[in-house]
Design brief:
Structural class: mainly alpha
Largest sheet: none
Oligomer: single chain
Helix content: 55-70%
Distance between the termini: 23 Å
Number of strands: 0
Number of helices: 14
Strand content: under 5%
Shape: globular
Length: about 325
């Protein structure tokens, strides 16, 4: 095993350990509040909310897998689950790039060119953001005066972002980004059918996260026919707000603040904060459960990161992420 392979594996392990440290810190820093929040809820509500969160994360993985396949690199569900589950721990490290870098490196084990992995991840982020704003724009104006007054400008972005998911717009945008990064263009665009399939998985994921939030709201005394719609819209909006705060790992702080603001008028005094803390803890647990399951239940492909001569495996124009990070254009090799 050469030094390059060892270095890649060591860096990956260090990144995972760093992500786990940040996960532990995010929980430990609010330990007393977390204990009080969980103590006030039934185990049935907590278990159901956790299950809905796990299902939402799995469904979002299917949306990313659909986009990657649409770009020309279909993966088995087990492989996509392993890559997505482990790499998403990178979102807990400050900065938004670590999950992307880890995902690109892990897809290399399956001979996926960096351009396709990069493009599919950006498309998945754009799809989740656009669909999240759309869910919020549909549910919140009629259920939350606070959200309508404070975040109306975000709702206006929903139709614009949805329109930007059209394959012609996406192909142009990704082509421009890859050109700036001095990388080869994508071999083929994502079709409209693939885009709609990814949107379907993403919207289903948002509905599951809405169930996750609604169960918590119901557990702290929320009621009313509009509560499920409010919960779904509140979480979608809070997630997008947390994503837009670049320096917050995993949207910590910003997501809870937005969720609290929207839910406070509809819940008993102090209950919105309890819901926000419980949601953060349960979804952090869901990320860790999925990452653990992906690590234990799946395996990298035989010969991952190593070809027949013992060198790091690369396919076609997939000369590691360095080219996407520093803008260099590595020499192509024959497939």
């Amino acid at each position: 095993m050469n030094k390059k392979v060892v270095a890649v594996r060591v860096l990956r392990v260090l990144l995972v350990l760093l992500a786990l440290a940040f996960c532990a810190y995010s929980v430990a820093s609010q330990w007393d509040a977390t204990v009080r929040a969980l103590r006030d809820m039934s185990w049935f509500a907590l278990a159901g909310s956790l299950a809905a969160g796990l299902a939402g994360l799995f469904v979002w993985m299917l949306g990313w897998r659909a986009l990657l396949g649409g770009l020309g690199s279909p993966l088995p569900v087990a492989a996509a689950f392993r890559i997505s589950g482990i790499s998403q721990l990178g979102k807990y490290v400050p900065g938004k790039v670590w999950a992307l870098v880890t995902q690109i490196e892990m897809t290399r084990e399956h001979k996926v060119p960096a351009e396709r992995s990069f493009g599919s991840t950006l498309l998945a982020v754009a799809t989740s953001t656009a669909c999240g704003l759309a869910v919020a724009a549909v549910t919140l104006p009629l259920t939350s005066a606070t959200a309508r007054d404070r975040f109306w400008w975000l709702f206006l972005l929903a139709p614009v972002l949805l329109a930007a998911l059209h394959p012609k717009v996406v192909t142009w945008a990704l082509g421009l980004m890859l050109k700036v990064l001095r990388r080869p263009p994508l071999e083929r665009p994502v079709s409209l059918a693939v885009t709609l399939r990814a949107i379907g998985w993403t919207v289903l994921g948002w509905l599951l996260f809405g169930v996750h939030t609604w169960l918590l709201c119901d557990a702290v005394g929320g009621d009313g026919a509009g509560l499920p719609f409010l919960a779904a819209g509140a979480y979608a909006l809070a997630f997008v707000v947390g994503f837009l705060v670049f320096i917050a790992p995993g949207g910590i702080g910003a997501r809870e603040a937005a969720l609290t603001v929207v839910l406070t008028p509809a819940l008993p005094a102090g209950a919105a904060v309890v819901v926000a803390i419980a949601s953060r803890v349960l979804l952090t647990a869901a990320d860790l459960i999925i990452a653990g399951a992906a690590f234990v239940a799946t395996k990298p492909p035989r010969g991952a990161l190593q070809d027949g001569n013992g060198e790091a495996g690369e396919s076609g124009n997939d000369r590691p992420t360095a080219g996407l990070v520093n803008g260099t254009h590595p020499t192509k090799e024959a497939p």
